[in-house]
Amino acid sequence: MFCFIIKVEQLIGGKMAVDLEKILRPVDTPVPPFPAKYMTLASGDEMVIRQVDRDEIPDILPFIEPLVHVERDFYNIVAARVVAELLAYHMYRVQDEYVLIAQIGDGEIAAVVNGRYVSEDVGMSYHTLALRRGLRIGAHAFAAKMEYHIDIVKQKEVLVVAESPIGFRRWMIEYNLEKRFHIQHELGGVPSWSLTKELFDKTRDSLIVGRRPVPKELLDKVKAKILPPSDPPTPPEDLLAATRSLYDTSATALIGMRQKLGEKENA
Predict the structure, then answer these.
(1) Cα(257)–Cα(267) distance, integer angstroms
(2) What is the dihedral of CA 207, 94, 50, 102, to 10 degrees?
(3) Domain layout of the chain by residue ranges
(4) Does pLDDT of 239 surpass 80?
(5) Secondary structure (3-state) at 29
(6) DSSP E strand boundaries for 57-208
(7) Mean pLDDT throughout 78-95?
(8) d(CA 262, CA 264)
(9) Phi, psi (deg, nearest 5) at residue 191
């Protein structure tokens, strides 16, 4: 410890005895990459789900940042956290994170999912953010994430939490997740739920879809460019929907927002 302190002091003094960036960067655990897959949606469009590298993160962030201002279905807090998580991944400030994206057509981004390798047996699910509503795109992306943990990395369980009622219904109820309330999740320290390998195997036939390998022409097309979502989430027409999602029975948020809108119109 004394030797380390001396070297850091030398660094601060201008003598580059230690590369501080090497100290700050965590060392990722070697794990198999996610093998890209594709599926045909109900609309007839083909969707590819693939893993992205750190150098692709700057191309993704501009499509997530606007959702920080969408007070609907908790998109605001989910988007804010996803932006922070992707930045941490891009700048080597989180250990063992991965990011998968779903792309439609010529490369339109439709969903972003991420998580983290915790140990040989345990994975940590971070977020599932659908950038195009409908067609069960978010559900397909979440399933691909679980497939990665259980089938590819060979972990025994994945710890999951939800920030919205929709997420709770989609993950906890649809997958019949088990309680792990004695384990604090990395997202806010709230009690965790667990998708075990046994539960995953029970739902595999009904929830896991897709084919491999992805045809080279299709994979090259989506890798060439990440295009903006064609129908991203937007604020509700009546902001009362947002207040309901926050259990604000007095509608104070709605009243305050309408007052602000009125002031702008009268300015």
Answers:
(1) 15
(2) 70
(3) 34-244
(4) no
(5) coil
(6) 97-104, 108-117, 122-130, 157-160, 178-184, 191-196
(7) 97
(8) 5
(9) -60, 145
Give me the mean pLDDT over the 87-94 stretch.
97
Dihedral over alpha carbons 105, 152, 59, 129 (to 10 degrees):
80
Taking the whole predicted model, whether its pTM rises above 0.90 is answered as no
CATH says 34-244 is which class? alpha beta
- Stated as kind and residue range, the H or E segment containing 48 is strand 46-51
What's the CA dihedral at 9, 10, 16, 18 to 10 degrees?
A: -60
Cα–Cα distance measured from residue 85 to residue 43, given in angstroms and rounded to the nearest whole number: 31
Categorise residue 33: left if φ over 0, alpha if ψ from -120 to 50, beta otherwise: beta
Find the mean pLDDT for residues 30-45: 96
Phi, psi of 158 (to 5 degrees): -125, 130
Give the CA-trace dihedral at 81, 82, 85, 90, to 10 degrees. -140
Is it the case that residue 237 has pLDDT exceeding 90? no
What are φ and ψ of residue 162, in 5° steps?
-130, 145
Distance CA 30, CA 75 (A): 32
Which residues 6+ apart lie within 8 Å of 201 measured at CB? none
Tally of CA atoms within 13 A in the half-sphere of 146 that contains its CB? 28
Inform me whether the pLDDT recorded for 173 exceeds 50: yes
Per-residue pLDDT at 134: 82
- What pLDDT is attached to residue 250? 46
Percentage with pLDDT > 90 across the chain: 73
